[in-house]
Amino acid sequence: MSGHIVPVRVYIAVFLALLFFTGLTTWVAFVDLGAMNTVVALAIAVTKMLLVVLIFMHLRYSPGLTKVVIVTSIFFLALLMSLTLADVFTRQWTPTPSGWGSPAPTSQNR
Amino acid sequence: MPDAASSSLHGEDAVLAGGHVHSPGLRHHFEDMDQQQEAGSLGMWIFLVTEIMFFGGVFAAYAVYRSLYLPGFEGGSRLLDIRLGATNTAVLIGSSLTMAMAVHSAQTGKKKALVTFLILTMMLGAVFLGIKYVEWSTDWTMGLVPGLHWAPVEEIHGNPPLGSVEMFFSFYFVMTGLHALHMIVGLGIMTVMTILSARGRFSPQYYAPIEVSGLYWHFVDIVWIFLFPLLYLIGGRY
After folding, report:
1. Complex ipTM above 0.85?
2. Does residue B24 form part of some domain?
């Protein structure tokens, strides 16, 4: 009948993996990795998200159309993030054109 | 849904005039139950896409302000209780398991288990909101609520400009507040699903409402999976 029935042991395994990653990410927050702390925290979050989406939300067993919709939404989310941050991170790369007044706005006096 | 149609959703397949067998839960504009189920799930996913973009806007704003006011965001993050945050993450993950088990029970036609797992899911959701309430009360007594009660009583790590810490807590309350609002909506949905399940509205042939409610619940869990590291963990606690 309609819908793939995932075995209970798979759900339990995913649950245990999610708990493990929650413990891991909490532990690693207290370890000094410099700038990598943020990268590791987000990488673990993405891993947990994939477990939930693929198994709990049955995406792995869903038709291609559903997968295309989700990949498209991730693409637009990436556009939103990357273009916004590209603006903010590159504002200091070029001098403020003359006549625009000074000082140029910075993060401190904005 | 019209009551006349839904009342016959469970029970034996009906033989229509044409002589071919239809599941009684099948709407006439679908070919078969598989197509109907897939269309319903796809529709729910499209709604969740709008939710992804909704929360995505807040996450993008968080990324921008975090990059501009990093010391304030790290100092603010350290004022949050990481044990309560981690506990709440585990609670929500547990509720996702019970939700997945509820869908499994619906698929295998175990009505009693379905109702039990839905109630367990709601209980874990309520525990999450309870812990959140404890955290918010503590924030209030510590004077960490921008606009309403902003007078931090504790020393903030690194002594960042207070305004930037206030910005962090503005994001903290907007993000956790929007998430909690989604949890409350989820509890409402689960209440309705529990009542419908207890009335025997679902069967292995027809359980689409349980499936799409589960998609919503798991989505709200995923939002928290990202909020937990962003708000609690990356404050340089080492």
Report:
1. yes
2. no
